[in-house]
Structures are given as structure tokens and as C-alpha cells.
Amino acid sequence: MDNSYYIIGGLVCIIFVLEIVKLWVRPVKPESGWDQGYCMTIGTCEVQEDLGEVAVTPSGRMAVLSDGMGRAYGGRIASKIAVDTFVNIFEDYNAFHNPQYFFRKAFHSANKEILKALEGEERGAASISCALLRQGYLYYAVAGNVKVCVCREKSLVPVSAGHTVAVLAEQRFREGKLSKQEAVQLLENQRLYNFVGRDGFEDIELFDAPIRLKNNDIIVLMTDGVYELLGFKQIELVLNKNGSCQQMALEIIEAVNKHKSEAKDNASIILIRVRNGAMV
Questions:
Q1: Is residue 260 part of a domain?
Q2: Domain of 270?
Q3: % of residues, the chain, pLDDT over 70
Q4: CA nearest neighbour of 128 among 163, 102, 159, 169
Q5: What total of structural domains would you count in the chain?
Q6: Is 206 helix (H, G, I), strand (E, B) or coil?
Q7: Residue 130 sits in a domain of what CATH number?
Q8: Which residues pair with 238 in a beta bridge?
Q9: For 105-146, what is each residue's pLDDT tens digit?
Q10: Number of H helices, E strands in the chain
Q11: How far apart are CA 8 and CA 274, in angstroms?
């Protein structure tokens, strides 16, 4: 038999298979309802220890931002381990079935992986904030002092408190465990008492109830290198310009770079704006 018959037959089979594949593979539609930006600077430090990422699955969206700390490259490695851990768990598990479980699993897994990977002189740790976004709701959790905020109607409002000595002092005062004088003495102390990468890792700061978002709300995750240097008012002014999230993130980080301070920490910011298409 002429080989051309075999060639023609093979081509027909390939075309048939491709047509079957077309029935199963749907074209990916462009995302609607979201605008996001991410920018960072090393400041005057020798090593960039911040790291962030936004991950998307059919179930929803996750933003995670890590502020590493440690000797040599320990902080940078800790941030890398933490962010990778969060993204892997988010992509393998539907976090929105039980957000509280997802957060606790992700934070404790990151803590364990950092402790396992970094020892001795390379010991590192990290502050982390994580936000889950789905159908117009925000779920968040924090260990350390990377802030989660929402900018709504021109006002930037922090929704996370963080794990600094000052925050702990305020909590202890409200519980009646510290006198007013003792609390006041500690209110300026921004030293961390909880973060991932420590043997005595404590529980995370977790949302009480999901936050119902409105159209044009901007979710903000930022390290202390941003908010401690610039202050909320200056950040608000940029967010109220209504530019794209990437443009505004870049402008905020440029403001950090141009600040007159001689000592600038690593600074990172993630911005995610909610549009109508993301509310359902």
C-alpha cells in the first residue's frame, strides 16, 4: 500500500484529536474586576529581605507579603521560604473552604520550614501578612508587623494591629494586666514579639469576620519600611489619585527612595483594587 495512505490517515487522526481537545480546553478569559500593583526598594540596606506575591486560582486570590530579618542572607531566605510555602498551600488547597484553617496551616508550615532550613549564623525569620479575596470579601492574617489596610472613600484604615510590644502593651492594659503608667512606657516600643522562624511561635492575628468590600476599595499590604517612613497621610494622598495600582505602588516606593532619611529599611507594597466584576 502507498505510504501516502498512512500519512493521510495519521493526519486525520491528529486533526480528530485536536478537535476533541478543543471541546475540553476553554480559552482563558481576561480577568475582570481586579487591578493590582507590587513594588519594592532595597532602601539603604545591603540585602533585600522583602518578598511578595499575588496568586490566583479558580477559587479566588491571595496576596502575601514577607519582611525578612536575620544575619547574612537569613532574612532573604526566610522570606523566600515563607512566600513559597503560602503559594504552594494556596494552589493545592481551596483556602476558602475554611480560611482560618488555611491561615494557621500556612503560617505554622512556614515557621517549621524556616526553622528546618536556617540554623546557626544563617538563622532568619520573617513578618508576614496574607490576604484572601473572593466574591467581594477580604480575609486576612498577620504574624509580625506587615500591615493589612483598606483604602475606602479616600481614607486608609489599618485592619491589622500586628505583633509589636506596643500593641501587646495596649492589649494587656485593656485586660487589666498592666497599669496605665506601665503601658505608656511601652507604647513607643515597636520591637516584635511574634514572627515566623522562631521556636516559640505564637498564634497569628486572625480576622474576626470577613470584611465586605466595596467597589473601588484598595487592599494594601505594606512593610514597616513604607508606613513608618512615610506615614499614612502621605500614602493616602497617592492612593487618592486614582491611578492604576502599579502606578501608585511605584509612586509610593519612589517617595521612600526620595525621603531625606539617611537610614531606609527595605520597603514593599502590594495594592489590589476591587472593581464591580470582582464583587460576585
A1: yes
A2: 34-278
A3: 74
A4: 163
A5: 1
A6: strand
A7: 3.60.40.10
A8: none
A9: 999 999 999 999 987 556 889 999 999 999 999 999 999 889
A10: 8, 11
A11: 53
pTM for this model (two decimals): 0.81
| Residue 14 within a domain | no
Which residues, other chains included, contact 164 with Cβ-Cβ below 8 Å and sequence gap of 6+? 145, 189, 190, 191, 192, 193
Task: Give the Cα separation of 107 and 109 in Å (integer).
Answer: 5
Looking at 130-211, list the stretches that DSSP marks H as alpha helix, in order from N- to C-terminal side: 165-174, 180-186
Give the residue from 139, 77, 138, 134 showing the smallest Cα distance to 104: 139
Q: Is position 28 within any domain? A: no
How far apart are alpha carbons 122 and 142 in whole angstroms? 24
Residue count (the chain): 280
Please name the residue that has the C-alpha cell 547574612: 72
Residue 13 within a domain: no
For every residue of 48-85, DSSP letters joined together read --EEEEEEEETTEEEEEEEEEEESTTHHHHHHHHHHHH
| Residue 130 near residue 67 (C-beta atoms within 8 A) | no
User: Angle CA(272)–CA(131)–CA(156) in degrees, nearest 5?
Assistant: 55
